[in-house]
Amino acid sequence: MPNELILFFYYIMWYFLIALTFMFIISGLDDFFIDLYFWIRYIFRLWKTRHYEPLTYQKMAEKEEQLIAILVPCWHEAGVIGTMLRHNCYSIDYTNYYIFVGVYPNDPTTIEEVEEVAREIMHVQCVIGETPGPTNKAANLNSIYLYTKKFEQTINKKFDIFVFHDSEDIIHPLSFKLYNYLCPKKDMIQIPIFPLKVNLWNFTHWMYADEFSENHTKDIIVRESIGGHVPSAGVGTAFSRKTLQLLENPKTRVPFSTESLTEDYHTSLEIRLKKLKSIFAAQKVTYKKWQPRGIFRSGYIQKPIQEYIATRALFPMEYTKAVRQKTRWIIGIIFQEWKHEWPNAWPVRFTLAHDRKAFLTHFVNGFGYVVLIFWILYSLFTLENPEYPSLQEQFNLHPWVWAFIIGATFLMFERALQRIIAIRRIYGWSAAFLSIPRYFYNNLINFHAIIRAYIIYNSTPKTQKSAKQPTWDKTDHHFPGSHILTPHHLKLGSLLISAGLINQPQLEQAIIEQKKTGELLGETLCRMKIINRQQLMAILADQFKLKLFPQSKLENAKNSCYSLLPKKINQFATKNNLSVIAINEAKSELTISLDDPTNEYLIEQIINRVSPYTVIFVLTDPDS
């Protein structure tokens, strides 16, 4: 006789299966609409924009630079903020800006780090708040904003553009030029955010890459196109001066809501409700990048590639940290924003519903695995125990359920395909195909985060929710090592002109000649005898912040290191004509002399191949 408990679970899980399938379809329909709209729009724009003149660097550079204020809130960021500021100030292709770093009086190590950079770089200002930390991110931003008002009086100028960034961000060198070009025609500008490439098997970090690739190359483009809410990502967001003035609280004179854990989302929603002009600027630039000649050919060649003007960063690498960050986003975007009234405009309602459905879909996706595992185990069980009813019997009695399951499965595969396409756009095929197993891992993190969000939000007393500012549940940040930073440097021609070695007509003449030969600009200038080799190497050393090493000492230094190196490193160095000139075993450091510092592909290969050694690069000076 069949066990009653097993039969109980059989019928309960059958009804769960029906309910989950129905919710999968309802949830999947709005995703399907976004996908369908995107591809129809994509095909239409291929035809419509075929005669449009693309936005070029020259167009952006022609516009006079407006004064930009970058707001960077910090709490316990001493380990990353110094490197972040130095790297970005060096690589940004813009001059008229200040970076305001908001710190707390009870965070002395971060204050010390920021003040040290501020002494080195005139663009950096340390803003020490009056309130001990942590408050929350919005309160920190408000403190910085008030400081910029006082700073304007000091410099007797007014800021035209305000930009959000975090302490781990790699700012794209052309992003400020893009903001400058679009403001004040646009009130809020959001550029894409893409996590940096890391080891493909770090599924936690790649979860963010999966989501941002799809959101920032497809979903938000559709949201903007239909007139919906274009959310701020909290970094890489620019606001016109007029916008923040309109958002200012009449009593406190600050623009950012301190009652929200996701002040960026709240701010962008307020901008949309005030009918200001928001834009998602998915702008690409073309540049040449070193790549291998081919599978069967040795050496490297520069090939033109397209790249988004986008902010890059490292995201949480560990499961628990990702759950914490996701929890904060869920509380802010879903629970805290839900108390506001739904707008009348249907595109805004649709996009808000798309965001807020996560309060249910994260549960559905997570519990769906429980139901799936049950039916797999139950089906195996009935093979040995045919006296129990099978799942197929229910499908025979209710064929419409099977039709629903087919529909839900189609939507699931369609979603997986769209994600693969989106990830390939940014990271290539390997990362794209690995998104399939990551899909299940991502759902697990979201399931854990939504449970944690419900517990935290509902365990907070109602009076506290309305009366007390939520504290900053900050994620630990990491700034990447030099081996995964996108190499952006000041242009060689600009440096040569600044140094007085060439003039603009000579540079233009050399560029015309360079296009004919395909050689590097420095080689062209030397061949045309506009500059000499020694001048070129001195400028390259300055451009790439490398020390010069005399070629006359190169052979002796190589020979002294050869016998101390592992065989594999020696073989790699010989094959690529590299010179290892010093070894520091105590620090596990190698010093390698380069002939061409522009070949970032080879530099990345060197760093990966000589692990666990770290690398210090110098530049070979042939005339020493």
Task: List descriptors.
15 strands; 624 residues; seven-stranded mixed beta sheet; 3 domains; alpha/beta; GMP Synthetase, Chain A, domain 3; Spore Coat Polysaccharide Biosynthesis Protein SpsA, Chain A; globular
Distance between the termini: 94 Å
Which fold does the CATH topology of the largest domain refer to?
A: Spore Coat Polysaccharide Biosynthesis Protein SpsA, Chain A
Radius of gyration: 28 Å
Quickly count the domains.
3
Mean pLDDT: 87
- Record field, number of beta strands: 15
Helical content class: 40-55%
Form type: globular
* Major sheet: 7 strands, mixed
Write down the CATH class of the largest domain. Answer: Alpha Beta
Strand order in the sheet with the most strands: 3-2-1-4-7-5-8
Q: Which consecutive residue ranges, at least 5 long each, have pLDDT under 50? A: 481-487
Q: In terms of quaternary structure, what is this?
A: single chain
Question: How many helical stretches?
Answer: 24
Say which CATH homologous superfamily of the largest domain is assigned: Spore Coat Polysaccharide Biosynthesis Protein SpsA, Chain A
CATH architecture annotation of the largest domain: Alpha-Beta Complex
| Structural classification | alpha/beta
- Percent of sequence in beta strands: 5-15%
Keywords: Glycosyltransferase, Membrane, Transferase, Transmembrane, Transmembrane helix
Protein name: Bacteriophage N4 adsorption protein B
GO molecular function, one term: glycosyltransferase activity
Main location: membrane
